[in-house]
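Researcher: Good morning. I'm working through a list of sequences from a screen, and I'd like to move beyond sequence-only analysis. For each chain I'm collecting a predicted structure so we can compare shapes side by side. This is the next one on the list. No need for commentary yet; just the structure.
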Amino acid sequence: MKPIYPVLAVGAIFLGTAYWMAQTDEAPLDEQVAEQASVSTDAMYDAAARSAQQRSQAQNRQIADATGQTAAEDSAMTDADQLPEEQLTELNPDYPTMAMRLHEMSARRDGRAFDSAQVRDALSASAAWNASDDAGAGLDLSDEERNDGREFIEFKRMKLETLVAGDTLELPISQSGQIYQAEITQALANSDGSVTWHGKLVDELGAVTDESGSAYDVTFTSGQRMASGGMFTPEGHFVIEAVGEQGWIANASTLFKFDENEPDYVIPDDLDTHSSNNKLDNRTHD
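Model: Good morning. Structure tokens for this chain:
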């Protein structure tokens, strides 16, 4: 009988080799699985990062678009406002901004708010009234008053409202055939809620004065609906009155009618009585 030891030795070697090969084959598989897992995880993180970056870029573009649009609008508004502000400085260097003028207007009207666009439109006008062919249809005037020679006008109340000290205002008066220039010297708020503007006639040389050296004064007062005023000029004293947007201008001398058959003086009652008694006494003595 042959010894079995060599066979057992060969079997042991074969089994050992097989086991070793099995272990060797498994190690790379585990590493491959781990590597694949690592790659998958990294890919997920990369995908998530790219998605977040894309969302962030999209949001940034939206913000940039909105900011750009707002900036463009702000720029447009600023550009639109800058030119009028320069004109405001030319009109009156003491009130170079709309905010200053609106503050002044609001303060004398007990906090009333004014629309800046309407104020700008009013400031672009040189006068506070235009001639009207309406003949004061909405005014409470008699037929005689409508035909006594007074000039009917369309009154721009907002123009008067915008005036501050230092402003100039044209005074077109057809009855005198002149367009006067007035400088506003003061605007006062009255206790009844009205506002009064004081001014004087001026020309390119300064204040227009009479022979005595006195300036020709102008005054306007505006309440809730009615406005009135007076203008002393080299051609006479003119008065103005307006209700709402309708009004008239007339030479003050034409508004007072005199009857040639009536005396242009008045005798006081007590003086007239005293004169009558004296006449009676003289007749008694006679």
